[in-house]
Amino acid sequence: MLTKTLHTKLIILIDPDKYNLDLIDLANVCKVSYIFVGGSSIKKNNFEKTIKSIKSKTQIPVIIFPGDETQISKFADGLLILSLLSGRNPDYLIGKHVHAAQRIKASNLKTIPTGYILVNGGKASTTQKITKTKALSSSKEIINTAIAGELLGKQLIYLEAGSGAKKVVTSALIKQVKKNISIPLIIGGGIDSVTKAKNIIATNPDYMVVGNVLEKTPHLILELSKLF
Ligand code: 1GP
């Protein structure tokens, strides 16, 4: 699950509060490798309901990309165990994990230790605000953080420009990080057009995540899918 790939694969991200059934129908006819589900501030208390609904409509594996430690459901296919390596807030490095440990264990979910690195996307992201951490700007620090993540045993590195970011992760940075780690690399945040997606894919990260834009324009997935 979420292993290294020869060519970039597409992941779509669904925020349960903005869940749109039509998007799953479209994903079923597109080249979507995984569906991530999660949200930084879910208000509607519909997390598990959303997972069940998606699972009833598709064979595409559903992975929880948790916005907080309550977002756990045995109905998903896997769960990213996020360590916010770009920040220095102990809650997001170990505190929340301790809090959720028993529930994660009881869920029997396949867990994927993930080094989550917030990269400056041109505006303060919701994640930054919630976690009270800063995004990294220095390429050297980002690369070193990714390497440290691998050394710590993470099975994935997720470079995140932030949902709705103004600037996506740059091609130069993706290439550098990719060169320096041997675990799979995910890129996300602000990818809202075919052109931006094309530029990301040209650097060949293992996975590319698209969220926000598909909430507003689900049909864009048909265009994006042609790139894979
Ligand atoms: C956010 O990387 C994901 O956590 C996706 O970002 O919503 O901007 O596509 P967007």
How are the SSEs ordered, and which strands pair?
Layout: E1 9-14, H1 21-28, E2 32-37, H2 47-57, E3 62-64, E4 78-84, H3 95-107, E5 111-118, H4 126-131, H5 139-151, E6 156-160, H6 171-180, E7 185-188, H7 194-202, E8 207-210, H8 212-216, H9 220-225
Parallel strand pairs: 1-2, 1-8, 2-3, 3-4, 4-5, 5-6, 6-7, 7-8
Helix pairs in contact: 5-6
Bound molecules: SN-glycerol-1-phosphate.
Question: What would you note in describing this structure?
Answer:
The protein is an alpha/beta fold. The chain has one domain (9-225): FMN-linked oxidoreductases (TIM Barrel). The chain is 36% helix and 19% strand. An 8-stranded parallel β-barrel has the order 1-2-3-4-5-6-7-8, surrounded by 4 helices. Strand 6, helix 6 and strand 7 form a beta-alpha-beta unit. Helix 5 packs parallel to helix 6. The mean pLDDT is 97. Bound molecules: SN-glycerol-1-phosphate. The site of SN-glycerol-1-phosphate has 14 residues, from strand 8 and helix 8.
Strand content: 15-25%
**Silhouette:** globular
Proper CATH architecture: Alpha-Beta Barrel
Helix content: 25-40%
* Largest sheet strand order: 1-2-3-4-5-6-7-8
What is the radius of gyration computed over CA atoms, rounded to a whole number of angstroms?
16 Å
What do we call the CATH topology?
A: TIM Barrel
Secondary-structure element string: EHEHEEHEHHEHEHEHH
Unreliable sequence segments:
none
CATH class: Alpha Beta
Hetero groups in this structure are: SN-glycerol-1-phosphate
Tell me the total number of β-strands.
8
Going by helix content, strand content and strand pairing, the class is: alpha/beta
Q: What is the makeup of the main sheet?
A: 8 strands, parallel, barrel
Mean pLDDT: 97
Give the tally of structural domains: 1
